[in-house]
Amino acid sequence: MDPSSFCILERPKYPQNLASAIRACACFGVQALIWTGDRFNLESMERTPRETRMKAYASVRVIRSERPFDLLPSGIVPVCVELLPCSTPLPAFEHPRDAAYIFGPEDGDVSQVFRRFCHQFVHIPSQHCLNLAAAMNVILYDQMCKRTIGA
Q1: Smallest Cα–Cα separation from 38: which of 69, 13, 8, 6?
Q2: For the CA atoms of 140, 104, 125, 23, what is the dihedral angle to 10 degrees?
Q3: What order do you get walking across the sheet with 5-9 strand by strand?
Q4: Packing angle, helices 15-27 and 132-150, rounded to 10
Q5: Would you tell me how many other CB atoms lie within 10 Å of the CB of residue 101?
Q6: How far apart are CA 111 and CA 5, in angstroms?
Q7: What is the pLDDT of residues 36-74, one digit of tens each?
Q8: Rounded CA gap, 106 and 40, in Å?
């Protein structure tokens, strides 16, 4: 069986951020995306962004929860994606077999509360900060490449 992967989004700013995150998860085999916050309300929207295309990504379970770490199965390693003094640059990072990648909002950082749950920290070396979808795609692509090479 393939390793498990999860992603957690802390307080995404726009529904488009969530839609792009779902797409990234579907592209790279992430089984569940958990998101927190109340910055937008999907239930009150007439349709979600790119609703027709989003149907293709039904393989990803999308869960809204204010306690996302409670939903992770036993053995999952929370990995904070954040530029911190203690974080490992992505080229040198070894992805855990069973990981949950934690991403902050596009206009902020992963909160200290969420960082306390994390066992590992990684950052993407770049000239400027990446937007949420770009960061997710880079991390998940790197995970896929390193698993393929290591297999």
Answers
A1: 13
A2: 30
A3: 61-64, 32-35, 5-9, 99-103, 77-81, 120-123, 88-89
A4: 10
A5: 27
A6: 21
A7: 999 887 665 555 555 555 566 788 999 999 999 999 999
A8: 14
pLDDT tens, residue by residue, 70-122: 999 999 999 999 999 999 999 999 999 999 999 999 999 999 999 999 999 99
* 6, pLDDT greater than 60: yes
Using DSSP, state whether 6 is helix, strand or coil: strand
Left, alpha or beta for 144 (phi > 0: left; psi -120 to 50: alpha)? alpha
Beta strands in the chain (DSSP E): 5-9, 32-35, 61-64, 77-81, 88-89, 99-103, 120-123
Residue position matching structure tokens 């089984």: 31
Q: What is the pTM of this model?
A: 0.90
